[in-house]
Specification:
It contains 7 helices and 8 strands, in the order H-E-E-H-E-H-H-E-E-E-H-H-E-H-E. The strands form 2 sheets. It has a 6-stranded antiparallel sheet, sandwiched between helices. Strands 7-8 form a two-stranded parallel ribbon. A hairpin with a 5-residue loop joins strand 4 and strand 5. By secondary structure, it is α+β, with helices and mostly antiparallel strands.
C-alpha cells in the first residue's frame, strides 16, 4: 500500500465524517452496497453490506411504492455504463412521517472503461420538499435551485439575497451576493455577521 493511497483514503474518511450526506459504494459486479454509516444502520436497521442490489432495496417496506421504479432505473443506468444517475424518493418512517432523499450515483470505470463501482450519495431533502409544498399551497413561485456553478449570473437576475442559515462557517454565498451588488438579508449567526 503506497503513501498516496493511504492519504487518499484518509481524505475520503475526513470528507465523509464531515458531511450530513450518506456516502456508500455500489459494487456493480457483486450487486451489493457497502456503507459505514452508523445512523442508517441504527435508525433504519440497514446493514453495512446489502446484497442483491437493487432488488433488496426495492423490497424494503419503508420505501414508498411510487418510488420503487425510480430507484430501479437509477441502478440500471449505472450498470449500463452511464456516468451518473439521480433520483428522488420517499421513505416512510415508523411514525408514518415521510422523509425525502435524493440519491446520486457516480460511476467509476476500470481500465477497459467498463463500470466497476459507483459512489452513491444520499441527501435528506425533506425540508426542501416541505418548502416546495408550502409554497405551492400559498401560491408562491418558489425555485430551490440546488448546487449551482453560475452564481454570478443568477445574482444579476435577483432583486435580493437571503441567508436564513442557523449556523454557518463563513457563508460564501452571502459574499457572492454582496459582490454581485445584491442587498442581503441574513441570520444573525457566526460567520455571516462578519460581513453583513
Amino acid at each position: 500500500r503506497n503513501e498516496e493511497t493511504r492519504i487518499n483514503e484518509e481524505r475520503y474518511r475526513i470528507a465523509v465524517s464531515n458531511t450530513q450526506n450518506i456516502v456508500f459504494d455500489y459494487l456493480i459486479d457483486e450487486h451489493c452496497i457497502v456503507h459505514d454509516n452508523h445512523f442508517i444502520e441504527q435508525e433504519y436497521q440497514i446493514p453495512k453490506r446489502i446484497e442483491n442490489i437493487p432488488e433488496s432495496l426495492l423490497n424494503l417496506p419503508m420505501l414508498h411504492n411510487d418510488d420503487r421504479t425510480k430507484i430501479q432505473e437509477c441502478f440500471n443506468e449505472i450498470e449500463k455504463g452511464q456516468e451518473e444517475a439521480y433520483c428522488e424518493y420517499r421513505l416512510l418512517e415508523k411514525n408514518y412521517h415521510i422523509r425525502w432523499f435524493s440519491m446520486k450515483l457516480v460511476t467509476i470505470f476500470d481500465n477497459q472503461q467498463r463500470p466497476k463501482k459507483a459512489v452513491g450519495i444520499l441527501h435528506d431533502i425533506s425540508e426542501q420538499k416541505e418548502l416546495e409544498q408550502l409554497a405551492k399551497e400559498v401560491g408562491i413561485d418558489l425555485r430551490l435551485m440546488g448546487l449551482r456553478d453560475d452564481i454570478p449570473q443568477i445574482c444579476k437576475c435577483a432583486d435580493i439575497g437571503v441567508m436564513p442559515s442557523t449556523r454557518e462557517g463563513l457563508g460564501l454565498s452571502g459574499i457572492e451576493m454582496l459582490a454581485a451588488g445584491l442587498p442581503v438579508i441574513a441570520s444573525n449567526v457566526h460567520g455571516i455577521v462578519d460581513y453583513v
